[in-house]
Amino acid sequence: MHQTGVRIAGVGHYVPTGVLTNADLERMLDTSDEWITTRTGMKERHVAAADEPTSAIAYRAALNALANAGREAADLDCLIVATVTPDYAFPATACILGAKLGISGKPAFDIEIACSGFIYGLTVAASLIRTGVFKRVLLVGAEELTRLVNYKDRSTAILFGDGAGAAVLEASDVDCFLAAELGADGSNPENLYLPLSGTAGPPITPDDVEQRRNTIVMNGREVFRFAVTKMIAATNVALSRAGITADDITWLIPHQANRRIIDAAAKHLEMPTERVIVNIDRYGNTSAASIPMALSEASAAGKLKDGDVILFVGFGAGLSWGAVAWRWHMSTNGKIP
Ligand code: UT7
């Protein structure tokens, strides 16, 4: 089989302009800035406009990533969108994004594995390139979770925000994909799920909509415990597969679900705070978008240098989890310095 390397050639992100602060939530719910800040690390999150579907914010992030890579949409061979908040149940949001980018006809599909979406997508996109199927793939994590939230339920309403992050992956002499570990356990889907949204259960009624029963349901404590355990375990497996240790990680880029989850995992991995990328204070939990948004911000801030090792790690509904060890090599298509 033809085998080549893969690298990330460009990254970008986009958040809608609407902002929902902790002070706003204090006016809507029985909660406080103090509780939200200490229990989650969140201060504000962005909210898409009613006429701004997921494909619209994915499009903006995609344009930013293409510009960062110095590529045109026409250079892409395939589009992948990781999302649980698609424009429609079908067709795939990636198909709509392809049309918006002016490249209808190119293969396009969605990955629906909640907050683990970018990690799974990175593994799939990298594999498609490494095996020679495609030369250049656009991977977007884009979510509008605020549309699925019940703003009367304080335990979930405070957590979620909207946003999109994108990466252009392309064939390369250097192979930046070091290793991956992915997992899923669907034995208790109701630990984190969207009721009345599919073929399980009775058809949705007007009363369900009125009572907002078709909104996110979560067992927060259970997901918290699972998250810390799985982030550590997945990281250790990915590191061992890559033949490296936690000392070799330059940057930890975790899914941004809760500052306490990130801190607990980082502490266990003995990662100093300054090597952990965190932006949860400004965006809340943006599900599949959180990792590429954090990556794009870290790149734009000039933090990432060629040769750096990034450990992406995430978890989410499924329950699902994953970690990818990645060599950063964006500036040229040459050899690792
Ligand atoms: O992408 C994956 C998605 N999900 C996650 O990663 C979520 C993981 N879980 C979490 O982040 C945390 O469990 C939460 C932030 C959701 C909750 O934090 P917690 O420290 O686990 O709080 P808790 O659920 O144990 O609740 C503690 C108390 C309860 O009151 P009582 O029963 O002790 O009187 C809650 O009713 O905090 C109360 N509470 C709130 N108080 C003020 C829950 N939400 C709020 C709120 N404001 N927004």
Short description:
This protein is of the alpha/beta class and 337 residues long.
Would you kindly provide a written description of the structure presented here, covering whatever features stand out?
With 337 residues, this protein is an alpha/beta fold. The chain has a single domain, classed as Thiolase/Chalcone synthase (Peroxisomal Thiolase, Chain A, domain 1, 3-Layer(aba) Sandwich). The chain has 11 helices and 13 strands. It has helices at 22-28, 33-40, 54-69, 93-100, 117-130, 154-157, 206-210, 220-242, 259-268, 280-283, 290-300; strands at residues 5-14, 18-21, 44-47, 78-82, 108-111, 136-144, 162-172, 177-184, 192-193, 217-218, 251-254, 309-316, 320-327. It has a 5-stranded mixed beta sheet, with helices on both faces. Strands 8-13-12-11 form a 4-stranded mixed beta sheet. It has a two-stranded antiparallel sheet with strand order 2-3. The two termini are 28 Å apart. The mean pLDDT is 96. Oxa(dethia)-CoA binds next to helix 2, helix 6 and helix 8.
